[in-house]
Amino acid sequence: MPFITIKTNARNRDDRIPERAAVLAAELLGKPLKVIAVSVEYNENMAFDGVKDKIGAWIEIAAIGFGNKAEIAAKMTDFAEKNFGAERDLVCLRLIDLVKPDVAHGGKLLG
Question: Which of 18, 38, 43, 105 could serve as a FRET partner for 26 with CA atoms 20 to 30 Å apart?
Fold first, then answer.
């Protein structure tokens, strides 16, 4: 079950962003949409490049396995630019590769 967390200081709060992020993640990770979870956290007190006025994003994706990490990084950065107005060089991405024995879905361990 991939879990995507996006933290940003963007001021625009579009309620559809989690849904769009889930669709993109499902496409990039090759996972069914029904197992994707997304959390978007807005915090106007976040500072990027040492100031609160520049818009950025911190994105974490925890999943079992990743395909093309370079493509994931590029497309998630594009997503942050388009949906939050983030500056490209202020979008950070962390990919967390989970192992099946440490993940459960629907109450059952995956490995």
Answer: 43
pLDDT in tens, 10-33: 998 899 999 999 999 999 999 999
Is 46:8 a contact under the CB 8 Å cutoff? yes
The Cα–Cα gap between 20 and 1 comes to 17
* Longest alpha-carbon distance in the chain: 45
- pLDDT band at 81; cut points 50, 70, 90: very high
- pLDDT given at position 46: 97
CA distance 41 to 32: 23
Q: What is the pTM of this model?
A: 0.93
Which CA distances in Å does 45 have to 7, 56, 109? 11, 12, 38
> Among candidates 54, 75, 74, 39, which has minimal Cα distance to 9?
54
State the Cα angle at 40 between 35 and 43, rounded to 5°. Answer: 160
CA 37, CA 66: separation in Å to the nearest integer? Answer: 16
